[in-house]
Amino acid sequence: MPPGPGGADLRPWPLSGAVSRLGAHSDRGFPSMRRTRAMIGIGIALVVIAAGVRFIAAPAFIRFPLGIDRHYTYTGDVTTIANPLTLAPVTLPSGAPLTIDRQIKVVSGSYSTAVVQETDTLKFAGRSSTETYQYALDRRSMKMQNGSDTYAFGNPANAMHVNSSYRVNLPLGASSSSTYQGFTPQSDSLSPLRPQGAAHHDPVSDSTVITYAFSTDHPVAPYYLAHLHSMGFPASLSPAAAAADLRAHGVDVGGLLGSLRARLTPGQLATLTAILAKPVPLNYTYFAKGTVGVDPTTGAVVNSTASREGVAVSPNLAAYASLAPILSRLSGLPAVQSFGKALQGFASAPAIPVLTFNYAQTSASARSAASDASSQATMISLLDWWLPIGLAALGVILIIVGWFTRPRKRPQVAAAKPSPTPQPEEPKLPV
Fold first, then answer.
1. Under a CB-based contact definition with an 8 Å cutoff, are residues 170 and 176 in contact?
2. In the structure, what pLDDT confidence band is assigned to residue 417 with cuts at 50, 70 and 90?
3. 3-18 pLDDT, tens per residue?
4. Which keywords does this Swiss-Prot/TrEMBL entry list (predicted)?
């Protein structure tokens, strides 16, 4: 067909170009494949990072702090104290006050271990007593460790045997259904910390705690015995005091010797006289009964009480046992029978308390400890749960969005073939 008027070409346009241009603009508003891959890749990376925070970073950072320097205050009463020279108990006036200041301070440390010093200052009945203990603490498990950094009264020779027990802190995530081993430094001994039920609100510290009960009664450690001696508690009972105690149990030492003088050989009499004239060694024990309130997340001890704690003493009668062969053949004598009964009474009698007190942590001290524990618990929750969960959730969302909005292949429209241009017929010539 020839050009139309004005030179315009009136032939139909080919459809192939139009279709291709339409296809080029039909996917606008959808992410490109590159952006989709980036979203899915970032999502996967966030999930991996979340797992790393939860299982690598959190254990690395959630540890016993190295900057700890805290004071805890307790008040109470000294209820009885015995005369250490005669072992006769003396009842103090009602309300004899007791104050205890406990300092917990990290003196050195590393990534895995904190060296913690505990200083207890007790003031009572005009006396003052300071006790210092040092522990090597595993910063992750909170268990105390034996070794060169664990000793008493500032002397490495006074080694303590903590044997992976707890005192400064219970484990992270302390359980109300688990019993833990607690350590008593005065006796260098372990005793169970037994849970007393589920976590509950403690009005003293105004916080949620798990309460554990403890009870211990063990001979004092050698270093604590030396400390008692430095406070004026004797290592032995004088012969005069021992004779007075025997007299209180119906035994007259002078009368005993007089009645046996004619019945014993000179050697046996000399042995009996020498033993009765010697000081009687004393055995000291440390006892304690009370509770501790522990923050469930951090394992920090926020509240402590003792309903009964102190030092008791009993005579060491080992030397008197050597008299049995001498006196056994005279057991029919009334004086020997009375002497034997008195010794049995001493041996079976409970230890005599020479110092007994009770105490409770002050509310201000307990609330301060609870506040510190709460701050640590917030950081633990952030690293252990919320940050990993947030990162993982964001990663999953990106993966899902990237997957469902990925570009898809669209059906291609076949290009229409152009119609053939009709050719003009040639005129026929007449025959």
1. no
2. low
3. 444 444 444 444 444 4
4. Membrane, Transmembrane, Transmembrane helix
Q: Are residues 76 and 187 in the same domain?
A: yes
| 342 and 400 together in one domain | no
| Tokens linked to 328 | 């056994």
The token duo for 213 is 């009960």
Helix (H) / strand (E) element for 251: namely none
Number of domains in the chain: 2
Cα–Cα distance between 339 and 341 in angstroms, integer? 6
- DSSP annotation of 5: G
Name the residue with tokens 């797992």: 51
Same domain, 316 and 283: yes
Query: What is the residue range of 385's domain?
Result: 30-61+377-407
Of the candidate ranges 222-231, 369-378, 386-395, the one whose mean pLDDT is the lowest:
386-395
Span 333-360, mean pLDDT?
83
Report whether 361 contacts 303 (CB < 8 A): yes
Q: Which residues pair with 121 in a beta bridge?
A: 101, 130
The model's pTM is: 0.77
The residues pairing with 214 across neighbouring beta strands, listed in sequence order, are: 290
